[in-house]
Amino acid sequence: MQRDSEKTRQRILTGLEKLITREGFIGVGVNAVAREAGVDKVLIYRYFGSMEGLLKAFADEKKFCPRLKDLFDDMPEGTPLHEIATRIVIEHARALQNSPLAQELVCWELTELNPLTVLFGKEMEKGELKALADRGIIPDDDVVTLSVIVLCGLQYLILRGRNNNPMMDIDYSKPEIRKKVEKVIASMMKAFFEAGEGSL
Amino acid sequence: MQRDSEKTRQRILTGLEKLITREGFIGVGVNAVAREAGVDKVLIYRYFGSMEGLLKAFADEKKFCPRLKDLFDDMPEGTPLHEIATRIVIEHARALQNSPLAQELVCWELTELNPLTVLFGKEMEKGELKALADRGIIPDDDVVTLSVIVLCGLQYLILRGRNNNPMMDIDYSKPEIRKKVEKVIASMMKAFFEAGEGSL
DNA sequence: ATTGTATATCACCATGCGGTGACACTGGGT
DNA sequence: ACCCAGTGTCACCGCATGGTGATATACAAT
């Protein structure tokens, strides 16, 4: 074995990542990670203290949070609020769709709290809030509440799709369905926004 | 021990139910169920063949699906479509909120497919479709798509709330938050519906 | 009362888990 | 050359799990 502690640490961390991605968060444990990383499990204790420590380190050091495409590029000045909100939500969903690891973490977060799931949740939330704030959307606006609900809905649908278990035939991985869903959300946001303009 | 096979069967089934409700679906297994039911685990194999068989029997024989309050009572003739959709979604969320067992099953369904989660999912879906169809809402309407998305969003928020891990401070178990969310959904539905009337 | 069958109990197995102690190697500082 | 801290290997423990075979008990039919 190569005698390089830093390399070994990394092997363990990426072992954890591969394991979660391939097998899901259930069954993640010291033995499984060590096996996946091709490393004796005692090294996990040596370098991370415990499984909890490993999860925390993973949360701290890995960039597991799906990166949102920078939306400023193709959103011209003066884009209406509802289009911005729509874009953020849909872009977020796309990012999640493309990251099996993130999907697994979102699901894990619903099941159990541990250093990884907690930090992951905070990270996601921070990203959301930033995306909104960067575009001047006030956090306690009704538009935000609505966006969060819809976003959660898409997350749920994506999670359902993972196991080929779509909800009400809404399989978000199918492009035509996604198109339809995105269209509905867009027009809903528009309607909500314009109605709000008048009634508030 | 009382020698009554039917009673023992029931003890096992309600043992499973109590176990899931109290401890969550993780860790559900032959040993745990037998312990909870105060029964030798060999009886599980005798009566249900396997853990899978027990799950299937549980899905078949227990009424775990949260019952929707009958909405016909206080919905007068001619209630507009968006109010109907809103009511269905919100009522569904309320039912889920009041059933820790159902919450656990919804979460389980996102994690793993087994006879119980699959049958549970079908049951829920059937309930949804019926609630919609009973009120003359066509399944492939955009209103349905939107309703499903919002419903999924609420389900997700409720699941997040379980472990005191609210999403974006939207803790759906808090009445004032729920009120606000319901209000947003109602006005959104109204706006979407009315906009649709004009544009379609 | 005897027998037979359904029911319940017990003891056990192999496996996998989290966790730990003892040992072996490697390489750099003195 | 020696030592020693850092690193990796191995063997082991206690425990819980899923699963099974042999045995004891209750009860109903004869």
List keywords for this structure.
homodimer; 200 residues; mainly alpha; Arc Repressor Mutant, subunit A; 9 helices; 0% strand; elongated; DNA-binding
Task: Please describe what this structure looks like.
The structure is a homodimer of 200-residue chains. The termini of chain A are far apart. Helices cover 70% and strands 0% of the residues of chain A. The first copy, chain A, has nine helices and no strands. Chain A has two domains: 5-61, Homeodomain-like (Arc Repressor Mutant, subunit A, Orthogonal Bundle), CATH 1.10.10.60; 81-199, no CATH class. The mean pLDDT of chain A is 93. The first copy, chain A, is an all-alpha fold and 200 residues long. Chain A has helices at residues 5-23, 30-37, 41-48, 51-61, 81-97, 100-111, 115-133, 142-162, 175-199. At the A-B interface, helix 6, helix 7, helix 8 and helix 9 of A face helix 6, helix 7, helix 8 and helix 9 of B. The structure holds a DNA duplex (30 and 30 nucleotides).
In total, the number of strands of chain A is 0
* Mean pLDDT reading of chain A: 93
Greatest interface and its participating residue counts = A-B, 48 and 48 residues
* Largest sheet features of chain A: none
Number of separate helices of chain A: 9
Query: In oligomeric terms, what are we looking at?
Result: homodimer
Rg result of chain A:
20 Å
Helix/strand order of chain A: HHHHHHHHH
3D shape of chain A = elongated
Low-confidence stretches of chain A: none
| Termini gap of chain A | 68 Å
Percentage beta strand of chain A: under 5%
